[in-house]
Amino acid sequence: MIHHLCFLETLTSTSPSELDSLLINIRILLLKLSDIHNLRVGRNLAPGDSFSLFVSFDIDSPEKLEFVQRTAVYYQFERQILDAHAKRVVRYNFDMDPGQDPG
Length: 103
Prior knowledge:
The chain has helices at residues 16-30, 62-69, 72-85, and strands spanning 2-10, 37-43, 53-59, 86-95. The protein contains three helices and four strands; from the N terminus they run βαββααβ. It is of the alpha+beta class. It has one domain (2-95): Alpha-Beta Plaits. Helix 1 runs antiparallel to helix 3. The two termini are 14 Å apart.
């Protein structure tokens, strides 16, 4: 099982109401992907931090993650959310299965 974690630094012009809309739109898009489990999307409570939003989810394998990232829905997420509203995106993938070779 892979845990995918994504931090978004939104544009400085993004208002609090736009952040709320982004949270909703991210959920709407990514919940269309049946391979994604335990989707979490949230806003940073510390206003001074550079990352204002996070997205995280579980997925069965690195291969499934690659597959999902090539779908039209994920492409739409990248273009409509990440490219349009984030000036920086940091992604991490964590292997949650003990005893597996991290490769």
